Amino acid sequence: MDWIKRNARAVDQAGVETDAFDEAIEAMIAFEQRYGGLWFPALGPNGMDYGLDGEATVYRTAEGWAFPGILDGDWTWAVEILLDGRAGMTLADKPLRALNRSVDQRLEAHALLVAVRHWPHLILELATPRGMVPVLADAGLPSPVDEASGPADLWWFDEVSAIHLQLDNWWTHDHDIWIARCFRKEATGLDQLKELLLSGMTGFLEPGEVWCSLCNRFAPSAGPCS
């Protein structure tokens, strides 16, 4: 990883560039050694591409120093890795939003979504105050999946059903928009799962159609998609 040491730079919020400091260099090397070159299919035609790709610059963000380490094929946007291991995005001139508590959590969340994406499902759109993570009552729900859950992904799963809450938009409104998905291995029971979700959920249900990124079409909010 000598190329990282030779090329490592740090850019502060004013755009001033200097040599990177030791903690940043160590974080970039550790990331590249563990995840560099990793690629796997995403929901759409593009893949998830992990690695520094020859770039060794850390930038000062509202959440701390970070470097671009992942190209998210679904968003077609860079994911930045903070030095404490969290991952997030900077969109529409808004401050970086931490989306994953670790890269491993991000990988687990994607793996679980890929595992259930073809199950019958329905989707809802939720609005919550900015920065507030939705809370669900645990009664009757599948088991929480801690290893796949983080600031922007919440998972419950029990081999035959799943609930997924995912942060979808935090930059165009004065509140956050979440997508809630209910999955069942068999279509029967989807409505019951939806009622469990609605009865124990914080946030405000948005009416109208919702874009389903799993099926690439609009579906009625709280109605079956496939």
Structural description of this entry:
The structure is a single chain. The chain is an alpha+beta fold and 226 residues long. Helices cover 19% and strands 38% of the residues. It is built from four helices and 17 strands. It has helices spanning 2-7, 22-35, 103-116, 190-199; strands spanning 9-11, 17-19, 39-41, 47-50, 57-61, 64-72, 77-82, 87-89, 97-100, 121-129, 143-144, 153-157, 161-169, 175-184, 204-206, 209-212, 217-220. The strands form three sheets. Strands 1, 2, 3, 4, 5, 6, 7, 8 and 9 form a nine-stranded mixed sheet that branches. It has a six-stranded antiparallel sheet with strand order 11-12-13-14-10-15. β6 and β7 (77-82) form a beta hairpin. The longest helix has 14 residues, at 22-35. The termini are far apart. The mean pLDDT is 91.
Concise structural overview:
The protein is α+β, with helices and mostly antiparallel strands. The protein is built from four helices and 17 strands.
Helix count? 4
SSE order, one letter for each helix or strand: HEEHEEEEEEEHEEEEEHEEE
- Straight-line distance between termini: 47 Å
Shape: elongated
Class derived from helix and strand content: alpha+beta
- Please count the beta strands (DSSP E, at least 2 residues each): 17
Beta-strand residue fraction: 35-45%
Radius of gyration: 19 Å
Q: Uncertain segments of ≥5 residues (pLDDT<50)?
A: none
